[in-house]
Amino acid sequence: MTANTPAAGRGALAGIRVIDFGQMVSAPYCAKLFSDYGADVIKVEPREGDAARSAGPFPGDLPHPEKSGLYFINNTNKRGVTCDVGSAEGRDLLLRLLQQTDVLIENNLPQRMRAWALDYATLAATNPDLVVISITPFGQSGPYSGWNGYDLNAFHLSGASSRYCGRPNETPLEHGTFAADYFGAVTAAAWGLAAVYGREQAGGGQQIDVSCAEAIAATFVGGQNIGCYAQEGRFDKRTGVGMPLGAPATILPCRDGHVWMLALEPGQWNGLRKVMGDPEWASLEMFQDMYSRAQNADVIYSFIREWTMEHGKMEIMEKCQAAGCPVTAVFTIAEAAEQPHLKARDYFVDMEHPQLGRLKNLGAPFKLPASPGGPTRPAPLLGQHNADVYGELLGLSAADVRQLARRGIL
Amino acid sequence: MANSLPLKGIRVVNFGWVWAGPVVGQTLGFLGAEVLKVESAARVDMTRNLPPFADGIPGPNRSLSNHACWAGNGSVSLNLKEPEALQLACRLIAASDVVVENFGPGVMERLGLGYERLREVKPDIILFSMPAAGLYGPLEHVRTYGLSLTSITGLDSLVGYKGGDPVPVENAFSDPYAGIFGAFAVLTALNHRRNTGQGQHVDFSQQEAVMQMVGPAYMDYVLNGRIGGPKSNAHPTAVTAPYAVFPCAGDDRWISIAVYTEDEWQGLIAAMGSPAWAAEFATQSARLTNIDPLHERIAAWTCAFDDRELAARLQEHGVAASPVLNVGDLLDDPHFRARGTFVEVTHPLGFRETIYGAYVKTSRSHPEIHPGPIIGQDNERVFKQILGVSAAEYERLTREKIIY
Question: What is the pLDDT of residue A3?
């Protein structure tokens, strides 16, 4: 076992081998959830590398395939190999790796996998116990399964933006990150790990077909809207206000940024009134329950805004929280990254990367006291573990690997 | 055995309430686990009283949204203020693998169901706790709603129109996200138990799980000290354009278009009929430098077209595009219909309702989808068959509102 293989028995997923044959966010992040909790994850990249290597952010905005922040953050604890699966020899190497693998995680469009002759039927014939996790914008079946698509297209097909984000009649919005890819990734991780854990129970491997658009359309949008629409034929759209039916419940500006202003239940509202110094307007009849406050939203929000604009976000949060009112500061990225609470929980970890040097990373997304997880080894350099992996798993000699690399197979 | 669900044989006791906790149970339930929500008519979960109701008749077993969001969970009713009810809960836990809860830190201990107590009744129990900001730390008792939890992750600071204030997302994306993520965490703990025989108490901070989504912007801060902000639908790491949502013909109709590659750019130009202005944007760097004029040019073209027709036409040219669907579009969309995303089911009380089905397609395992439970629907089976409570004793416990 090389220095780069996970210490046996340590992580919760020790004993599971995964091949990450994905790019950008969804499949790599899903595979990172496996690697950060102890699975042996081998990332298989094309010769030009995962597209995330050219997606930045880069130090000083200078593109460099080994310095992409996106690649760095989503590929920790993995070993990395290269393989040109478009060549017969390369494809054969991948299939041989898959014979010794529990899980394949990939996010190529279905037509791409078919063109490589790596469709599920072929993979299942190669290794009937293999769990194949396929994460795509639209899924493996249905009229849009042949479409080209990215995170943006998946998110906006889900109904989430039209329903929940943006001002009326203005452009519907996504979250400013790869929201659909991340949602699809965690969905795939849960369903995929279940399929591995219960493989004997299920009777063998299978394909886990995740459509990022569908996962969001169902669980986020559908759950709270589709029953109403089916029964009553009516539906709602975005309003630009946090909660249109109750108030206050929205983001408001304050002296140094923004706060998420929330005071719905009577105890919360009374707490907010006290923190604001019991202003006279707050005792008006029309402000005594959350619904009538919402009916007078323009008035109440302008009153509250007058007060928030005179105070800082942390002061507002601390005083409101102490008064039983669930107001929070809208943290900037810097504030989120520097918050004492997350530091006290060791959420940020230091890593050493051969090209990026010493830098911070987000740590484990959840804490398993008996089998700690989280990133400890940096994302692999392109082809860094070719000799290791092809040697250990396929018995290739260093000379074989060099020769395959020279011929462009690796 | 054909079509066996992978988690068959796993029993989960779910104290989760509102949305995120029930979704943990739902995910495990769709995958074959037997999931029993513990609730009580003495304190009905507020989501059971969310309108609209089946056939317009209010009642805690008739909320349509509750039935969708809680599908996959069973229900036993126990009034945990009663010592006997607590004992029954402990007996049920002793016969289970996993306990799920999404209260604040310390609540389970006050109920008499803290991890140490659970370990006494079941040494290898997995307790999965998912408080807003984790089980310890300066913000451990922070009060948030699901829809505002994102504010303390940095995520909310990225949502909005370019250069403007943050725009709130009007529902808790974090709830189903953390709920499904939580099921993954439970499975890692189950795998560890299989490897070692050990249970554990999982500390799942919803804040930390959701903040993973902020990774790309976090890295820009780490590497460049840059503090991101709202930028409409522009690419999260600003490496490509056009990448936006554009207006289409009709009321509130839109299309998303994402171009990464040169082939896709050429496809878009061809679909637009090779306009002369495209020459000004011939390179990726020209497109990124002049992203606003580029997006304006494309918007001036898209606004004449039907969103679905245009998406299909762009796809024929190899361009990644999708119509921006509203809630009304989802149910009849041919793609979601073909995938059975939404299913009409018959509730045990006799009415028909539409909920979402298995939102992941698994080639070997096919979950059966039932609507979220009636309060206490599994009482008889659980207390009599699993715990061996006699018929007379069951009758007494019900009469005395211990099973309630």
Answer: 37
Residue B113, both tokens: 């169901």
Active site residues of B: 175
pLDDT at A1 over 80: no
Secondary-structure class of domain B11-153+171-204+338-399 per CATH: alpha beta
CA distance B72 to B118: 24
Give rounded-to-5 percent helix, strand, coil for chain B.
45, 15, 40
Q: Say if the Cβ atoms of B205 and A366 lie within 8 Å.
A: yes
Phi, psi (deg, nearest 5) at residue A82: -110, 155
Q: What is the pLDDT of residue B1?
A: 41
Structure tokens at A210: 């995740």
Query: Model confidence over B107-130: pLDDT tens digits?
Result: 999 999 999 999 999 999 999 999
Q: B58-68 burial string, b = 16+ CB within 10 Å, else e?
A: eebbbbbbbbb
User: B2, A148: Cβ pair inside 8 Å?
Assistant: no
Q: What is the mean pLDDT of residues A198-220?
A: 97
Residue B3, pLDDT score: 62
Segment A172-188, tens digit of pLDDT: 999 999 999 999 999 99
Region A16-35: what's the mean pLDDT? 98
Closest CA to B86 of B121, B55, B113, B119: B113
| Minimal Cβ distance to B355: which of A154, A159, A227 | A227
Return the bridge partners of B354, or none. Answer: B344
Q: State phi, psi for B292 to the nearest 5 degrees.
A: -65, -50
Sketch the domain layout of chain B as residue ranges.
Answer: 11-153+171-204+338-399, 243-247+253-325
Å from B297 to nearest chain A CA?
Answer: 16
Provide the CATH topology of domain B243-247+253-325. formyl-coa transferase, domain 3 (3.30.1540)
Nearest to A161 by CA among A212, A218, A221: A221
Measured distance CA(B50)–CA(B80) in Å, rounded: 24
pTM over 0.95: yes
CA-closest candidate to residue B162, choices B295, B315, B320: B295
Query: How many CB atoms within 10 Å of residue A211?
Result: 34
| Predicted complex: ipTM over 0.90 | yes
The CATH code of domain A17-219+349-406 reads 3.40.50.10540
Class of domain A249-336: alpha beta
Quick one: tokens of B114? Answer: 């803290």
Distance from CA of A404 to the nearest CA of B (A): 29
Question: Got the DSSP string for A40-52?
Answer: EEEEEE-TT--GG
